[in-house]
Amino acid sequence: MTRRSLLRGAALGAGAVTLPTLLAACGSGPGGDGKTVTLGSNASDEVPRKAFQDAFDLFEKNSKKKVEVNTVDHNTFQENINRYLQGRPDDVFMWFAGYRMQFFAERGLLSEISDLWKGFDGFSGALKDQSTGADGKQYFVPFYYYPWAVFYRKSVFEQGGYEIPTTFDQYTALAKQMQKDGLVPFAFGDKDGWPAMGTFDYLDMRANGYEFHKSLMAGEESWTDPRVREVFDLWRGLMPYHDKGANGRTWQEAAQTLAQKKTGMAVFGLPQPGQQFSEADREDLDFFPFPEISPEHGQDAVEAPIDGFLMSSKVKNEEGAEELLKFLATPAAEDAYLKSDPNNIAVHSGADTSAYSTLQKKAAELVSNAKHISQFLDRDTRPDFASTVMIKAFQDFIDDPDDIDGLLKGIESQKKTIFAEGQE
Amino acid sequence: MPLVNHARRTRRRGPRRFTARDLAVIGVLLGFAILLDLFIIWGPTVASITLSFSSWDGLSDLSWVGGDNYDTLAGGDYPPFWPAVRNNLLWIAFLGLVATPFGLLLAVVIDRGVRFSRFYQSTIYLPVVLSLAVVGFIAQLIFSRDQGALNAILGNENNPTDWLGDRDLNIWMVLLAAGWRHTGYVMILYLAGLKAVAPELKEAAAIDGANERQTFLRVVFPTMRPVNVVVLVITVIEALRAFDIVYAINKGRNGLELLSVLVTDNIIGEASRIGFGSAIAVVLLTVSLGFIVTYLVQEMRGEEHR
């Protein structure tokens, strides 16, 4: 190798490092022509990806505008959302409702769409709440949701002669009976860290009500409050009926034991258990709403994470983006989507439900009757608090359900640090 | 004026050691290396240390919190921290005191030419080609509580052992899996080292009446000093950079905490705690520096003696 070629190589190497960043800094990309709307998608799985494409195709056909979809792997999209929004985000992007949306709205990374919302119809008040930022303005277009509930197999309940429990006492009594009959009452897997959040959310909302749950999630209540302690006490009472070794089991493995009739019940979101059931068994799958704990709150809250769309504050083709959002808020868009992905429920009251499965119909009814809709622990609170504190806390609790006071003290002191950081 | 004249004269008189072209070449070659070093090694290091005194979340303006992040870590307000430190040290101890000596033992046995030694050699070396993340997936197939092979073999269906979910057990299972790969790595290095030891040395030792153990400990092992150093460095690096296997198994939670995982947990994500994560990274850096400095001091001393 001559000295000259070595030099050339070095220069090229340096160019390769710096050039792309320079290019990225000056390129304007598509979107400047007013005809193209760019859309950031986290729907990297085959089924939703195709379903979303169907909805966008319909928009393109009606509006003569083009949607340029940039799909990123679901988890990667989530992990990089910070840098994404500060960099060169697409005009419109997929995200989640609730606190997780408000967090970005507060930091000025989203475009307000209150005017668009005035033209929307068919969205319930609960949906509007979830689309509203802390400043009272709307930012989010909801698209579909999937409620959480207690899932079971009809045949197992028939065989055991079990009744659907509506109160916590009946729930516990049923669990006791199942254990006597040789079943593990609750399928449970929390290796991924988040599935246990569903149970906690329901226990808290049933015992203390939606409003308390919401302020607890927003960091306004103390975790050492006796009301939180009670939630963990209730949960500890149920622990002997949960499948052991939950920290080493994924939710998929837990759902399989439900399918195999080794376990009797499980708290899940709608799309989850079905995936682990064979086609033939799927008709046998059913659910009931999480039982009542305090009569004051009854079963008025439903945990139903909502996915939808946001417009970034750096939107380039604002007119096009608004037109797309308007379209996405119509039943036609949701129908086009749900045709290919029947695991979720449309949010629009005008959406076509005739093609729904029995389970979907029941889920839609559950949500439409709900007075309050919660999102899910990791969507109702600061994501850094949920991921670095709560996941570990729940796994600690599963490992040793007896030291509740120590656990809550730890959560509270970490919460103070993290929520204080956010204020600055 | 006289100064300039003087300079011109000296330059003309003395032999020119570097042409302008040479200087340019040196400048560019060294310059790039130094720039790269500054930008991709020292820059981030200094940035991490600086950020560790802030509570930056990647979105808002920087605000300085002094040593608060370190207080939080040391004071136990961040529960996973001390387990992570303990686990990191456990990794070093296990790889250094168990897996590495075992690799050496295998190398010695194979080097003496047992039957089927080529077969053993390739079998033990095989896992080295796997990424630790893949080793993690294999470990799950074996150790999973409900569906793992190990519980099926042991036949304890009614009360299965939760190898990966039980936080008192899982770290050992992971070390076992990581050791499985590390042993092969060390073995192949030592095999090369053993081949390089001159047979005359062993013969001379034998003539002097040394038995096999003495020959190995007093003659063969010390002559492999360069290999020993390499193996030691590799062992420490492997232990400190461990990440992929625990992340593949349970995202480094519930008993498998490591400093590298905590850094990732805090820095990557929607609402990143970049300041806090940087503080953990600095702790990891300090631990690493301890080993690096010890190693460098040893090496430099060795050179002086040589």
Could you characterize what this model shows?
The complex is a heterodimer of chains A (424) and B (306). Chain A has 424 residues and is an alpha/beta fold. Chain A has 19 helices and twelve strands. Chain A has helices at 3-26, 46-63, 74-79, 81-86, 99-106, 114-119, 125-130, 154-160, 168-180, 195-217, 226-238, 251-259, 271-275, 318-328, 331-340, 358-368, 377-380, 383-399, 404-423, and strands at 36-41, 66-71, 92-96, 140-145, 148-153, 184-186, 263-269, 285-288, 301-303, 306-311, 345-346, 372-374. Chain A has a six-stranded mixed beta sheet with strand order 2-1-3-10-4-11. In chain A, strands 6-7-5-8 form a four-stranded mixed beta sheet. In chain A, helix 10 (195-217) runs antiparallel to helix 11. Chain A is globular and about 70 Å long. Chain B is mainly α and 306 residues long. Chain B is 72% helix and 0% strand. Chain B is built from 14 helices and no strands. Chain B has helices spanning 2-13, 20-51, 68-74, 81-111, 117-125, 132-143, 149-154, 170-195, 199-207, 212-223, 225-241, 244-250, 259-267, 274-305. In chain B, helix 4 runs antiparallel to helix 11 and helix 6 runs parallel beside helix 12 (244-250). The longest helix of chain B has 32 residues, at 20-51. The two termini of chain B are 52 Å apart.
Short description:
Chain A is an alpha/beta fold and 424 residues long. Helices cover 51% and strands 13% of the residues of chain A. In chain A, the strands form three sheets. Chain A has a six-stranded mixed sheet with strand order 2-1-3-10-4-11. A four-stranded mixed sheet of chain A has the order 6-7-5-8. Chain A has a two-stranded parallel sheet with strand order 9-12.
List descriptors.
heterodimer, A: six-stranded mixed beta sheet, four-stranded mixed beta sheet, 12 strands, 13% strand, B: 306 residues, mainly alpha, 0% strand
